[in-house]
Each structure stands twice: as structure tokens, then as C-alpha cells.
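ERR on first pass: missing label on line 2. Operator R.T. fixed the label and resubmitted. Corrected input:
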Amino acid sequence: MIIEGAWRGVAVVYANPMGLSTAERIENELRSKEVPTILLQYADTDLERLWECVDCIVFVMAVSGAVRTVCRFAKGKEVDPPVLVVDDSGKYVVPVLGAHWGANSAAREVAEILGATAVITTAAEEFGYSSVEDIAKLAVAKILNLRAAVKVNGAIVRGERVCVDVPGLPREALRGNFDFSGDQCEYRIRVSDEESDDPNTVYLKFLNVSLGVGAKEETTADVVEEGLTHVLARLGLSWSRVTKLSSIRRVVSEVAEKFGVPFMLFTTEQLESVDWTCLTPPPVS
Amino acid sequence: MIIEGAWRGVAVVYANPMGLSTAERIENELRSKEVPTILLQYADTDLERLWECVDCIVFVMAVSGAVRTVCRFAKGKEVDPPVLVVDDSGKYVVPVLGAHWGANSAAREVAEILGATAVITTAAEEFGYSSVEDIAKLAVAKILNLRAAVKVNGAIVRGERVCVDVPGLPREALRGNFDFSGDQCEYRIRVSDEESDDPNTVYLKFLNVSLGVGAKEETTADVVEEGLTHVLARLGLSWSRVTKLSSIRRVVSEVAEKFGVPFMLFTTEQLESVDWTCLTPPPVS
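pass 2 clean. output:
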């Protein structure tokens, strides 16, 4: 599920009371899947900040109203979050921004939750396959060369064989003619820190995974380990991908040591002094 | 049919060859309904001019792609044309701009043509009724006070009785609790040249209807009269609404005289010297 990887969270924004119950259904179901979800009313919402801070926005309102809003904030394919629109009655889920950047998949998942129709309007033959963008999301990685991504997506849609060399990728989640056993394909997707000049190869750069752990004073190392392992499994990541663990609880260092991950101990004062616009956005501006 | 009143025309814009046959189906069916329709490929299109010059734009492409385009041109509710998006395969028709300004109705009509689903995402209870904007379109009139329109639309949706005093309106096309026999309602829609200060009354100002007639040299007055009467019937207008007839053919003056409409005779040179951006947009920029 693409939407389960939305670790920065999903914002469900409803415009008027008629949409509240649909918005609440989405919120509850996503929370039950452990997706961090916030429910907001349009009027009270600092949309500019949400735009920067969440992995997906779901507007519960009319498409034509949402489009006017989207136009105020959209900046570009690589930076905008996927945006879905659900009508008040929860009949349709329409990806209105970032179709190939997760919005199609997210729409299908939200539609399943609601028993609604996912209005997928990208070419039908595209939708049956995992795009390069989907693969990057699943790998928690960044696409270094967007131009090759367009070519490789074309190859995927045409059903051509594409060699994929991305360690740890959940292969069962991919749909397409992918070859995981070598690089003897015309088109390739591989991990690299730098883009090379092969125009038929998409280079993915793994993002750093730095985990901050909040815990009660009495929490044991076992519980911390269990929680972290559970979260990593949901994101499809192994411990080897974790580049840092941090906490105000010293007990977390035991887990870090066990898995060979650098640990940083913070004080409450240090945490409180952090000034970053995307820290858990409060529901009301 | 709202879309039949699109006398300035409908532009069908397809993005790639996969959408061409769907775009052509829409074009052919609209033309068969005598709606002036042009078919254009996205890449060749002067969208900025289309935006100003047509009564409806139908994009055949993905919603998320169309939204980026819409964002470049949208200016405001009162000035933007209704915009629909149809996916390449012609499965969905989504009103993405101007839902209440004709896009919902137009989407339903295009969906009927294609055997597609009209993805109406405004509140379901709104959609069953004719909005003030629909009524203004049917009357070929302009809404003078938008604020009252919001209130009266609310009353229509709630099923409250609304008094309508708009001569020549095709009553059978209206859905709602409308009273055509008087003005003893809390909410009213009426024709006026100026807005008064009643906040519960929508004032519609009739637009001037000026008809320019092109004809072959040998065309008779009877044929001109028949053609004009046919067009006026399609627009739901009586001869009394026509404020001017003009042509380079003197024979048209006979029809003007018969119906008591002022006539203007132009020369070919005068016509050719007209410089206005919206004169029949050529399909390629």
C-alpha cells in the first residue's frame, strides 16, 4: 500500500459539514492502518504549511472547488504532494494532482476504504503497472534523473522487460515485467548516489532514514525494539537502511547498539528549541 | 441542454494519440447537435486564447495533467469557462472548473454522448436542482449580484419556493420549487437592468443578442428567416430578444424588417478589417 508509506502523514480536509462524516470515515480507517492522519476543516487550515508537511492531502469537497485551491499552492511535479478529492457523500475519489506520484494508488486505497469509485483518468494501460515513481516511493528513495524515468515508464507500460536492482524492494508489490536477476535489459532501475549518463537507466538515491523515538520513562528496550521493527516492516525497510536513531530516552541507545546504528541523545530542552515548520502541524492555525 | 447554448463553441483538446478517438467522438456528437466544436491537439493549441473565446473546454487527458494546465489560466469563477476532463478511454467525464457555472450539466451531457460516468462531486442534493447560474445561462443573461445568487441557490437546494420572473425562460428545463406566477416568495429571481438592494433577489440582466448572418449570394429571405428562427429556438430565445441583425447580404434586411430588428449592412472590407482575438479561432496557433 502506497498510502501506508505516508510517514509524514495524510491530511483530510473537509469543506463543509456535509462532508464531515465522509472525512471522519477516511480518518478512522487510515488511523486503523497506522497512517498518521489529521482531520481539518478547510476554513481553519493553514494549507500552505500542510502542502509542505504531509505526504498526501485528501480534500472532501467538490473537484472544481479543490482545483481552485490546488492552483494556489501547486509548484511542480517533484515537490507537490499527491492530492485526492472525495465528494461529500464519499462516492468518488479523484486524484487531482500527482497521479503518477502516488495519487492513483492512494486514490485506489481510499476508494477501497469507502467502497467508492477511484476515478483513474491516466491511460488505463499505465495504471496496471508500477511506475518508476511508485518504485521510488516503495524504496524510500529519490529519482535522480527524471528524464530517464519518463522513458523507463514508457517501457514498463509497453510491457518491456526492465531490470530492477534495488535492494530490499518489496517485489510482490510490483506489477510489470520486472527482472530482478541481472542488468541485461535495455531499461534499468538501480540504486546509486550519483546519476550516470545512461539515458535508459533510472538512478534512485536512497533517502536517509533517521528515526526519532518518543517513549514513556518506564519503557524497556524490548518494547522500543518491537515498535521500531514494526514501523520499519510497514515501510518495507530493513534495519540496515536506518542511518540514525535518536531519543530523549537513554534506553533507546541499547536498541541502536544492537543493530549497529549511530545514536543521538537529546534533552527535552533541545527538542523544544527545534524550530521547523513541519513539526506535527497543530490542527488549527 | 446547457451545452447546446454554447454558441461561442466548445473546444475539445486531446493530449496524445490515445485520446484522439474519444476526442473525435465528442466532436462529432456535439457537431451533430449543432454545437460549434473545434478539435485540437494540446501541443498545437493557443490555450490562452481558447480560454477567452469558447464557452466550454473539454480536455481529453488525465485529470492531474489537466489541473496543471487549468492552474495556468484560471482567473475567477465569473470569467473562466466550464472545464471538463475526459480520460483517453472515455470512461469518465469530470467537471474540474465551473461546476455550478455549467460544467456539471455539460459533463452530464458529454457523459451521455460517450456512455461514460459523469463524476459529479458537488453535493448530491445540489445537483438535482437548477442553480441560479443555470437559469442565467438559459436566459442568456448575466447575474448582477453574485452574493444574492449564493443565498438563492441555498434556498433552491433546500427546496424552498423561489419566485422566477424571467420572460421567455424554458420552464420545462428547470428543476426546483419554482413559482412563475408572482413575487410572493422570500427568494426571487428577476430581470432588471440594475441591481436593487434586496439581498434575497437575484437580478439578471439580459445580454444583447446581436446576430451576424453569413449567406451565399443566391440565398433568399425565406431561407435566412428559417435559419435564424431555428438558431433562436435552439438558444431558447424569441425574436423580441434580438437587438441587431447584421450581414454583408442585403437580403437579410428583409428579415430584420419583418421582425422589427435594427439592421446593419457591412462590406466585405469592413468585415475583414475586424481585429478581435476571438474571431473563429483557427485550430492551429
